[in-house]
Amino acid sequence: MMSKDNELKPIEMMKSEDIHRRRINLTRTLPRQNAYTLALDGEFSSVAFNEERAPLNKGKWRESVFEKKSDALMDLEIGTGNGTFFAYQAGKHPERLLVGMELKYKPLIQSIRRAVKQGSKNTAICRYHAFNVDLLFEKAELNDIYIHFPDPWVAPRKPKNRTVNAELLKVMYDLQRPGSKIYFKTDSREYYDWSLEQIPMTPYKLEASTTDLHQSEWAASNFLTAFEKIFMRQNIPINMMILSKE
Ligand SMILES: C[S@@+](CC[C@H](N)C(=O)[O-])C[C@H]1O[C@@H](n2cnc3c(N)ncnc32)[C@H](O)[C@@H]1O
Question: What one-character DSSP code corresponds to residue 118?
C-alpha cells in the first residue's frame, strides 16, 4: 500500500503545485494478469516496483534498494522503452545507479530483464507516471535524468502532456543534486522548439542544444536508442538538449 504522504489526493483537494498529477491504474486491480505483470511482482520484484511499491522507496532508493551509501551517484531514465539505453548505460557505468521509469508493462520488463541478464546490479525500475516523479524521490535524491524520445503529443496536439514542460522541469530541478544534468532527445522539432521556450521559465541552464544531433559534435559519443534507430532510418534529424543544475 502507498504511505499516506505519497497518496494521490482527489483532484479537488490538490494544491496548485499538485495539479500536474496523473492517475494510473493499479496492477493489483487488473482484471487479468499476464506474463509481464506477474514478472513485475514475482521474478523481478526486488528490482522492479509497481505503482504502489515504488513510492515506498522515496528518500531511500540508494540504501534500501541498492544497499549503497547516500553519496552514490543515482540517475533516472524516464520512458525506458525496451531498455537498450537502460542496459547500455548500466553496463558502461557500473559505479552509478540507474532507476528506470516506464508506464507500460512489456517494455518495463524487457528493460529490467536486459539489465539483469547482462549481470548489472546497479539497476531498478518502476511502473510510474513521469508527472508524479516527486512522489518517488525526495528533494536532491537524484543525479542525472535521461528523457529519450518521450511521446511528443503533436497529434493530438496536447502540450500539457509533454514531459519536458516548465512546471515539471521545476519539480525535477528540486529532485536533482547540484551539478546534475537532464539529457533530452526528440525526433519532434515541434516538441523541441516548444521545450526550448519553457527553459527560461525554469532555473536550468541550457548547456548544449542541437537540431541535428547525428551531424553534431555530440554524435560520436551518442548512443542510438531503439526509437532513434527507427527515426534515423527515416532520415529524421534528431534534436537534443542538455540542461544543467549548477
Ligand atoms: C517513444 S518511446 C521511447 C523509448 C526509448 N526511450 C527509446 O528511445 O527507444 C516512449 C516510452 O515512454 C513511455 N512513457 C510514455 N509516457 C510516459 C510517462 N508519462 N511516464 C513514464 N513513461 C512513459 C512509453 O511507454 C514508451 O515506452
Answer: T
β-bridge partners, 181: 244
| Whole-Å CA distances, 69 to 45, 62, 74, 84, 222 | 22, 6, 11, 27, 30
pTM: 0.94
CB neighbourhood size of 175 (10 A): 19
User: Do 27 and 2 meet the contact criterion of CB atoms below 8 Å apart?
Assistant: no
User: Can you give the residue ranges of every domain in the chain?
Assistant: 4-244
Is 75 a pocket residue for ligand 1 (Cβ < 6 Å)?
no
pLDDT digits (tens, 9 = 90+) for 48-62: 999 999 999 999 999
What nine digits make up the cell of 83? 531498455
- Residue 43 half-sphere exposure, CB side, CA atoms within 13 Å? 11
Query: Which atom of ligand 1 is nearest to 226's Cα?
Result: 9
End-to-end CA distance of the chain, in Å? 36
Quote the Cα angle for 214-215-218, to 5°.
65
User: Is 212 considered catalytic here?
Assistant: no
Going by pLDDT thresholds of 50, 70 and 90, the confidence category of residue 21 is confident
Q: Ligand 1 centroid vs 185 CA: distance in angstroms?
A: 12
C-alpha cell at 98: 540507474
Class of the CATH domain delimited by 4-244: alpha beta
Find, among 87, 109, 82, the residue nearest to 98 by Cα: 87
